[in-house]
Amino acid sequence: LMKEVVVIFLEFFAWGLLTTPMLTVLHETFPQHTFLMNGLIQGVKGLLSFMSAPLIGALSDVWGRRSFLLVTVFFTCAPIPLMRLSPWWYFAMISMSGAFSVTFSVIFAYVADVTDERERSTAYGLVSATFAASLVTSPAIGAYLSAWYGDNLVVLLATLIALADICFILLAVPESLPDKMRLNTWGAPISWEQADPFASLRKVGQDPTVLLICITVFLSYLPEAGQYSSFFLYLRQVIHFSSTTLAIFIGVVGILSIVAQTLLLTLLMRTLGNKNTVLLGLGFQILQLAWYGFGSEPWMMWAAGAVAAMSSITFPAVSALVSQSADPDKQGVVQGMITGIRGLCNGLGPALYGFVFFLFNVELNAMDPIQGDFNIDPLPLQTLIPGPPFLLGACTVVVAFLVAVFIPEKPSCSSSSSQLSLSEKSHTDGKESMSALAGVHINTPLPGSDEESPPTANHEDFEPLLQDSIV
Q1: What is the tens place of the pLDDT at every residue in 396-428?
Q2: Count of C-beta atoms within a 10 Å radius of residue 14
Q3: Among 373, 370, 293, 369, which residue's Cα sits nearest to residue 32?
Q4: Are residues 311 and 291 in contact, defined by beta-carbon separation less than 8 angstroms?
Q5: How far from chain centre, in Å, is Cα 153?
Q6: pLDDT (tens digit per residue) in 169-203
Q7: Above 50 in pLDDT, residue 464?
Q8: Handedness of CA 310, 333, 225, 112 (dihedral sign)
Q9: Where is the Major facilitator superfamily (MFS) profile domain (predicted)?
Q10: What is the C-alpha to C-alpha distance for residues 252 and 302, in angstroms, rounded to an integer?
Q11: How many CB atoms lie under 10 A from the CB of residue 27?
Q12: Which long-range contacts (CB under 8 A, 24 or more apart) does 358-361 make?
């Protein structure tokens, strides 16, 4: 298990270092339509992750985890050295790497292989905490090195860390899938049902309660996926945050999110219940999106960031709510639906935000005084709404809130099983929020990072995690 923790830490530490240099390269490469291109790049990556995750998961059940862990880490980190060599190839590789950027799915399957069911929740929590820790620290380190020694050194360091990660997998990580299991399934056909990314989405309408929950997830996660794909670029160029301030912002909001998803979430669950906690989280999300949309001063961004950390309680609460609404033998299926919808949002959200920025002429060369270039006349509305996509996102979350009001809160039949589910989901969803926060839509969020579907109620001999999990 500790070896998997090291793999996760090194991969996302390398990407976190590049937060500041990537914003610079993005603006230099696409000076005319920066937000639009960023949205399209992240959108293509998210959709490819959504499409490929079930197939990679099904193949790893046949060919073993270690080889696919190596493949996913290699292709996720492959674009890093291209950042300074060829920006166009760098962004093209980021888009295409989405097809393999599902490291977390393989990691969770690996953890399930090497732990028994009683220890699995703790193990997932350890992996999630490691992910969060790497992304809280690395952007600040990258910003400091970039300011003092230049972007080239940061890219070189990130490349070396990625290579060290690959070498560590080759030399130190053993195969977790038992040989007997692999021999029995070697050459077995992979059914389309296993590899179909839309399989779980087609099952959504079978239960009215699950349908309401899935609509709520889609309408609330769509703006969040878009928000974090462009938010740091927005803070840097429109609100004029410096690299150091941006790195501190990521760290502070990340720490607040971890606190909100551990101490605060537990307290709210006990006092308010699942459904009311979801509604409270959606309320915080509406407030922070509206604040981002209308805010034009740096202090407003900090205040909205604190509210955004509070809104991160929504998805652990949703996972607990959906686990109560489903039968014990359907946990993997319903959690797979939620992860499938989140993966879809990771593709659609960034593209939607980039397009709305483009529609409202929010262009960096029109708003960044450093450039001194006012080729594009901004619309009058832009003076009232600095961030139009955030306001649009707030409107979709209002609809999500209204839908969530009609979700029936089913009393738990088995308090012990629901508490286990809550503990497990809150750990894993904590990581998802951090994935989005860091703007790394790799398993993405960050970037394809929506990836939990713990097999809480499946006692079969084989490991169904990756078959049930869409992303």
Answers
A1: 999 999 999 998 866 444 333 444 344 444 444
A2: 26
A3: 373
A4: no
A5: 27
A6: 999 888 766 654 554 555 556 666 666 777 766 77
A7: no
A8: positive
A9: 1-412
A10: 9
A11: 18
A12: 358/33, 358/35, 358/36, 359/388, 360/385, 360/388
Q: What angle do CA 199, 39, 440 make, to 5 degrees?
A: 75
Structure tokens at 75: 């292709």
How many CA within 13 A on the CB side of residue 191?
A: 5
Buried b (16+ CB within 10 A) or exposed e, 270-302: eeebbbebbbbbbbbbbbbbbbbbbbeeeeebb
Q: Please name the residue ranges forming H helices in 243-359.
A: 243-259, 265-272, 274-294, 298-311, 314-325, 331-359
Q: What are phi and psi of 444, to 5 degrees?
A: -25, 165
Alpha-carbon span 3 to 73, nearest angstrom: 14
Take residue 382 and report the two structure tokens written for it. Answer: 């832009």
Determine the 3-state secondary structure of 257 from DSSP. Answer: helix
Identity at 448, one-letter amino acid code? G
What is the C-alpha separation between 247 and 20, in angstroms, rounded?
Answer: 8
Comparing C-alpha atoms, which of 466, 413, 210 is closest to residue 318? 210
DSSP state of 260: I
H or E element at residue 226: helix 208-237
The token duo for 258 is 């971890």
The end-to-end CA distance of the chain, in Å, is: 21
Q: Which residue has the tokens 């190839």?
A: 89
Residue 189 in tokens: 């056909």
Residues 6+ apart with CB under 8 A from 457: 328, 329, 330, 331, 332, 417
Torsion angle in degrees (nearest 10) through CA of 311, 312, 313, 316:
140
DSSP assigned state of 449: B
Structure tokens that stand for 293 in this block: 């949309």
Of 62-76, 146-160, 392-406, which range is least confident? Answer: 62-76
Ordered by where they begin, the domains of the chain are: 1-176+200-363+386-406 (1.20.1250.20)
- For residue 183 the two structure tokens come to 């021999």
Q: Which residue has the tokens 């609460």?
A: 317
Burial of residue 327 (CB within 10 Å: 0-12, 13-18, 19+) is: exposed
Q: Which tokens in the block code for residue 80?
A: 């890093």
